[in-house]
Amino acid sequence: MIGAGASFPYPLYSKMFAEYKNAAGVNVNYQSVGSGTGQKQITERTIDFGASDNAMDDEKLKAAPAAIAHIPMALGAVIATYNLPGVTEPLKLTGGVLADLYLGNIKTWNDPKLAELNPGVTLPGLPVTVVRRSDSSGTTAVFTDFLSKVSPDFKAKVGTGNSVNWLAGSAAKGNDGVAGMIKSTPGAIGYIEEAYAVQNKLAMAAIQNADGEFVTPTLEGVTAAAEASELPEDMRGTVTNAAGKTAYPLASYTYLLVYPEQNYGGRDKAQGERLQHLLQWMLTEGQQYHEPLHYAKLPETVRTRALDMVNKMTFDGQPMNVAQ
């Protein structure tokens, strides 16, 4: 099987697909190429499944040759990470200040807005280097969705999406590319999935949430954000800036994108059944691999709904009913 898309869940999917091969003897080749490319390739039907951290919008779904289902698989945190020599404690950042950094309005780390949020912290006079994604990215969509919710200025000038017209910064490909650029650039700040920050031993900022609390990313905070945010029937939704004192404001679902009807493009029933079985496994036994890799398991109500969507997949209009 071949899948492609988001780099956000790549550390998790690498583990899950290795374990699935051990359990089922099926090789899954997953290409970490960005959510935008995953959406494009599933639309073009060149892969078995796509992967994206943000849902496809109505316009993209209408352009697809058939209905595409969004199957949530995990929850994760997008974090603001930085390279500030001598600063050892987590910096506090509001969404508005984070937006100002990415708008180019804050140019040095000892800016009064940053100093006011971090009393007692000696901030260096280093120039700010904001780092962003060069590829079409679900992590970018999550980050810009949050900033657009908290900053009208950012919403008007940059907006939300997999790819946006940035006003400042340097670009790198993938979460790993952004992490590498931050690690090698004193004064840099960027946004990446939490697992990449942990792997690279990068600092993680405490972000102010909708209740005014400054929170660092935790599995509990990501889960709290999901539980405070109701997903619609088709599962397409965001959980950024969720209410709740413990909710982490830059939380996100990550999805697999599949065709519920598997009889297309010369596929045979066995291919559809293999995909259905993989998705069933990921939503059951596969959930055990999330937390050790800094992803949150799906809330039980969401997991049950997702599994029901998978179980209703068809081939030529008939249920496949692969045994779980």
UniProtKB/TrEMBL annotation:
Taxonomic source organism: Deinococcus lacus
Q: What family does the database annotate?
A: Belongs to the PstS family.
Q: Which CDD domains does this chain map to?
A: PBP2_PstS (cd13565)
Classify the source by domain of life: Bacteria
- Record domain PBP: where: 3-282
Keywords, ordered alphabetically: Phosphate transport, Transport
**What Pfam families does the record point to?**
PBP_like_2
Name of the featured protein: Phosphate-binding protein
